[in-house]
Write a structure and sequence with these properties.
Blueprint: E1 2-6, E2 15-19, E3 29-38, H1 41-48, E4 59-60, E5 64-72, E6 84-87, E7 90-91, H2 95-101, E8 111-112, E9 124-128, E10 132-134, H3 141-145, H4 148-161, E11 169-172, H5 178-189, E12 193-198, H6 201-210, E13 214-217, H7 223-230, E14 236-241, H8 248-253, E15 255-263, H9 276-281, E16 285-288, H10 294-305, E17 313-318, H11 322-330, E18 337-341
Parallel strand pairs: 11-12, 11-14, 12-13, 14-15, 15-16, 17-18
Antiparallel strand pairs: 1-2, 1-4, 3-5, 3-9, 3-18, 5-6, 6-10, 7-8
């Protein structure tokens, strides 16, 4: 089979398209013929090298995929050959953790395919049966591969952690990103007044088409001042943050009294300043969030089944050109998910 992988960390040029043996399934695994993968910013970080990761080279990237099952292990009792499935991007080798706590993403060995566990950018992948879920509704393979990581992350942030309420004012930072697009839709499911930021007129217009009630150009406008104008100086109830250093100060300043901020990442840097006076005098809450639970993934897929949530695709690349996909994401040219398909 063909696979896209790296033998060292570095720029996009370290990605190789090469031959590898088709994996053999273990008793609790299924073999999936991959029909589509999608790219996440995490892929760029892993490829570039993260000090917290210990990669066993050659390393396969990719956390999201969809396809069809072609073989099942002897202990599998749910999946069967021919099933159209998408892959839950996070896994743990401690299945009892889900049973005991309902929080598999809290397990000590929880990690993502492509980062902690070998990834999915290949023609065939062997996956634990617990990590494959039916493709909801009439989604294509390309659409299905665009759902799991970003929508689960956004759902856990807004619904699981921040407890989003009906009709709240919600600020979505980076509304043109994968998680931002998911956050806009989830907030609108709760009939919230959504303020989204994006870079440039084209991305702002697309965010508005997606459901954002107001848009802010985070390259040209002050997020804090625009939020004050939109909300009559009150501020927002909830900020969806994942950009980090470049926006975090504006995000906290945009909060109303008793407002809360939830964050899952820091694409512009991890170090930031926080006005502690605002934090305690305005009774603010700041929450960290990482991925989501398997139960939450099942819950949100029901909304795709009914057409109430939808993936947004940007551009499709062949598996042989994962390098080009990485370059497009790094250039911030995209709106929606960049998809990779085996030829």
């Amino acid at each position: 089979m063909k696979v896209s992988r790296i033998h060292e960390c570095g720029g996009p040029d370290v990605i190789r398209y090469e031959d590898a043996p088709v994996p053999r399934v273990k008793a609790n695994e299924v073999l999936v013929r991959v029909r589509a993968c999608s790219l996440n910013h995490l892929d760029l970080w892993v490829r570039g090298g993260l000090p917290t990761l210990r990669l066993d080279f050659p390393w396969v990237l990719g956390s999201d995929a969809s396809g069809e099952i072609v073989e099942v292990g002897e202990l599998c009792n749910r999946a069967k050959p021919g099933d159209r499935v998408l892959v839950a991007p996070g896994r743990t080798l401690s299945p009892g953790y889900q049973t005991a706590h309902g929080l598999d993403n809290w397990a000590p060995d929880y990690g993502l395919f492509g980062a902690v566990y070998p990834g999915l950018n290949a023609e065939y992948v062997a996956i634990p049966e617990a990590n494959v879920l039916p493709v909801p509704g009439t989604l294509t393979y390309e659409e299905a591969a665009s759902v799991p990581l970003v929508f689960l992350t956004a759902w856990h942030m807004l619904v699981g952690i921040a407890k989003i309420g009906m009709l709240e004012d919600v600020l979505v930072i980076g509304g043109s990103s994968g998680v931002g697009i998911a956050a806009i839709q989830i907030a609108k499911l709760h009939h919230c007044n959504v303020i989204a930021t994006a870079g440039g007129d084209e991305k702002m217009a697309k965010a508005k088409e997606l459901g954002a009630d107001h848009v802010i150009d985070h390259y040209k406008q002050s997020i804090k001042e625009e939020v004050k104008t939109i909300t009559g100086r009150r501020g927002v109830d909830l900020v969806f943050e994942h950009v980090g250093r470049a926006t975090f100060g504006h995000s906290t300043a945009a909060l109303a009294r008793q407002g809360r901020l939830v964050t899952c990442g820091a694409t512009t840097g991890f170090e930031t300043q926080l006005n502690l006076g605002h934090l305690f005098s305005k009774h603010l809450s700041i929450h960290g969030s990482y991925m989501g639970t398997m139960g939450e993934l099942y819950d949100l897929l029901r909304f795709f089944e009914r057409g109430l949530l939808r993936p947004v695709l940007d551009q499709v690349f062949p598996l042989s050109d994962v390098q080009g996909a990485h370059e497009r994401m790094a250039a911030k040219q995209h709106f929606g998910k960049i998809v990779i398909v085996p030829e």
